[in-house]
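Dear colleagues,

For the upcoming journal club I promised to circulate an example of a predicted protein-ligand complex. I picked one with 6-O-phosphono-alpha-D-glucopyranose because it came up in last month's discussion. The inputs are reproduced below in full, followed by the predicted structure.
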Amino acid sequence: MCGIVGGVAERNVVPILMEGLRRLEYRGYDSAGIAVMEDSGIDRLRRLGKVQELQNALDKQPIRGTTGISHTRWATHGAPSELNAHPHMSHPEIAIVHNGIIENYETLREELSAAGYKFESDTDTEVVAHRIHQHLQDSADLVAAVRKTVAELEGAYALAVMNRNQPGKLVLARAGCPVVVGLGIGENFVASDVAALLPVTRSFMFLDEGDIALVERRQVTVFDAAGNQVERPVKESELTADAAERGNYRHYMQKEIHEQASAVARTLADRIENGVALDTAFGENAAAVLDKTKGVHIIACGTSYHAGLVARYWIEQLCRIPCSVEIASEYRYRSPVVPDGTLFISISQSGETADTLAALREAKVSGYVSTLTICNAPESSMVRESELAMMTNAGPEIGVASTKAFTTQLAALALLTICLARRAGLEERQERALVAQLAELPGLIEQTLLMDKSIEVLAEKFVDKHHALFLGRGVQNAVAMEGALKLKEISYIHAEAYAAGELKHGPLALVDEDMPVIAVAPDDQLLEKLKSNLQEVRARGGELFVFADPRVHFGENDGIHTMRMPALIQDFQAPILYTIPLQLLAYHVAVLKGTDVDQPRNLAKSVTVE
Ligand code: G6P
């Protein structure tokens, strides 16, 4: 979702800003723009489409400047177009970029129109530019004008603002959307996330909610929401600039699917000792919180929500405590009942998803035992605001469709399940057996990835299909949901997942030779039930694609394609391993269809608006 990069330097910032925008492409966007200034005026260039379009325009019409802001836009108010692309300007003086949504922009727009301001775009952002311009008529202080303006805004935003009359200064404001300050030597930068600035610095300052920062070449001055000057801690990022490179892979998603063995190994590393799971994986004070936990509420969105659904099966089965899982955008607008002793868990690869973050904030005042975030972004808002946190350590995930972030979330949730189950009477012998299953995962993932070539061939059968049905039972129902999500996200094939037992209550009506049905069939207690459900599909002429345990037989015939998993897989391992062929299937179908695999249309990696 919208990305911001800005900088103040002695050198020309255009190449730095453009590289930053490229590094933010993964967030999802539809247009890009840049505005820079030196001593004269502000030069601005915007293009609909990819950052490369903007680069091509810059090659033809170079601009340079030592102070600048740039942006990738994911349309909310107003269609994707050059006029709606950021930066937005007010008169020749003010240029701004914005991430988020201004909810009261219509009222402000009417007021500003009445005061004579002319609007070029349909965006909510342009009102902010004009409002700052209007406040600057009373006093030339840019920080004061931004402060007065943000006090009038409702909604969530990160803003970067520059004023032609004050070269060498950027003003940054943060409320509800992430933004970081990257500290260089004699130059400073701002961006929506750390990855954008890794080529220029590894030293970052993170702003708090409501902060306004004045960023200059040699100093950064931060004011809190009350207007007091404050210090914010500076941290060194452990990421390196090449951690987010694509290497020899054709797409980031492909690379990230193939990195899952090492990613899961990193999730588990140092969290298992002498065959048992360590409470400290979830934070220093986790043991005391887990001792008090009598139930769990898991809140998340998208793929992370599916990880929560898997965890519900594990937690209720092995820990015998109630676990509910809910989509954050629903949870935050109802009044959930919080029984005594309930632990709130937010799951998010980015740690910035607006709805999940809002749910976490709500949870902190709702009487939970504690809040725990399972996350892949150590410096994210959720990690900073949650009482307990566990990093999944998957490494940067650039493909919009989440892959290694999901399987590492599952590994983290498996560890949590074991720690809670121990408190519910899981014997040490049983714990060691479960931990041993987890320790085998990296090797089993490598073996499962060997299915890649055969799935590439299989993918050809899906290219001309418009719909697909994914079936699973028990915990595999959540895996089927994740498989369907992957296929629809990147191949644009309409895909739905159903608990196989629910088939006859509706979706069976859709089954015919044009509706491929994909099933995940481990050798578990529900296998025989699943087989009966699949017969119902065959009897209606539906073509079946079954990812099955090597021991399972479906009576091969023309309408059933069975893909055998490469090894015997135990129950606790199954959700992670059966997800992998579904990721590969979605990937290869998308490649054959020629879609934009890493940045599928209309989607964003980090959804920082409601
Ligand atoms: C977006 C991404 C998904 C992700 C979801 C939740 O929709 O495209 O891949 O699962 O947000 O994101 P989170 O960062 O909270 O896990």
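Two points we might discuss: The chain has three domains: 3-236, 247-426, 449-599. The two ends are 11 Å apart (CA to CA).

See you all on Thursday,
B. R.
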